[in-house]
Automatic annotation (TrEMBL):
Organism placement in taxonomy: Bacteria, Bacillati, Actinomycetota, Actinomycetes, Streptosporangiales
Domain Enoyl reductase (ER): 10-331
Transmembrane segments: none
Record-linked PROSITE patterns: QOR_ZETA_CRYSTAL
Protein name stated in the entry: NADPH:quinone reductase
């Protein structure tokens, strides 16, 4: 099969389509012919080697972290899917490689593709939708009437998190450019802070939850817009010891991650709030819950642009340089 491969970490101009052996299909695996995949910041971080200390991939490596496609083979113990089913997924972190013609995915990480979506639309969702669900539903347990701030509302995670927070009954604020204010309001934002002309820390106060997608100074300021007992959940800030435990990391790595987040956690404690780092995980059952919301019209994908498979490198460059006006960049395999 053909796949978009990297041969070494840190080569931003690297990556090429190459022939590679077809995936091996285990007893509980489903072999999927990929119709579309989407580009995520995680792809750049893996390519650049940012996670090589905690995610041990063997090079050369096929990139890509979510997909939509059709089942072409099912392992002997597969009970949830059959050949011909249309599916979508974020594969397990150890089994990435969706920029490819085929991929083997454990049946528990797959879900039926939303019937109302095209393959390209469906492929844009798994990673960002699961991130939103695990932040707002699983970890923050957002309740009706709570105040939730979602940074970068026109981004990949932001466009879905806004809709999910609205569905949960929250009062939602977001940061976005003036050009995207109309879009993020349509998606569920009650308050829009123009990050180019306003400081959200001076505008917002008394929030229950912040979903931080930017890290850095934005994360530090986010601690100060929360009310006592509030939570910042970050996908861009420093990892913490809980994340290390989830990975099954050794003691040295757990201590290192704890040290990385010590300053942020100390500032959070002084504010009477909590900080946690989220690295989303594959979960087919959660995707099924999201599918119901999507087919009911509660959540819709936002796709900026689709590229063909032979333009995968251009698609990554387009996304990495921030050229997308809103939502996701998709690679159409077929």
């Amino acid at each position: 099969m053909k796949a978009f491969m990297i041969e070494r970490y840190g080569d931003q101009s690297g990556g090429r389509i190459a022939e590679t052996p077809d995936p091996q299909v285990g007893a509980e695996d489903v072999l999927v012919r990929v119709h579309a995949a989407s580009v995520n910041p995680l792809d750049f971080k893996i390519r650049d080697g940012d996670f090589k200390a905690i995610l041990s991939y063997r090079l050369p490596l096929a990139l890509g972290n979510d997909l939509a496609g059709v089942v072409v083979e099912a392992g002997s113990d597969v009970t949830r899917f059959a050949v011909g089913d249309e599916v979508y997924a974020r594969p397990d972190k150890d089994r990435i490689g969706t920029f490819a013609e085929l991929i083997a995915v454990h049946q528990n990480d797959l879900a039926p593709k939303p019937a109302t979506l095209t393959m390209e639309e469906a492929a844009s969702l798994p990673l960002v939708a699961l991130t939103s669900w695990q932040a707002l539903v699983e970890r923050a347990q957002v309740q009706p009437g709570q105040k939730v701030l979602i940074h970068a509302g026109s981004g990949g995670v932001g466009t879905i998190a806004l809709q999910l927070a609205r569905h949960l009954g929250a009062h939602v604020a977001t940061t976005a450019s003036a050009a995207n204010a109309g879009l993020v309001k349509e998606l569920g934002a009650d308050v829009v802070v123009d990050y180019r002309t306003q400081d959200f820390e001076e505008v917002l106060d008394g929030y229950d939850v912040v979903l931080d997608t930017l890290g850095g100074e934005t994360l530090e300021k986010s601690l100060r817009v929360l009310k006592p007992g509030g939570k910042v959940i970050s996908i861009a800030g420093p990892p913490d010891a809980n994340f290390a435990r989830e990975l099954g990391a050794n003691l040295v790595l757990r201590q290192a991650m704890n040290a990385l987040s010590w300053k942020t956690r100390r500032h959070a404690k002084r504010q009477g709030v909590t900080y946690s780092f989220l690295f989303m995980k594959a979960d087919g059952d959660q995707l099924r819950e999201l599918t119901r919301l999507i087919d009911a019209g509660e959540i819709r994908p936002v796709v900026d642009r689709a590229f063909s498979f032979d333009q995968t490198r251009e698609a990554m460059e387009y996304a990495e340089k921030g050229r997308a006006k809103a939502g996701k960049v998709v690679v159409a395999m077929r």
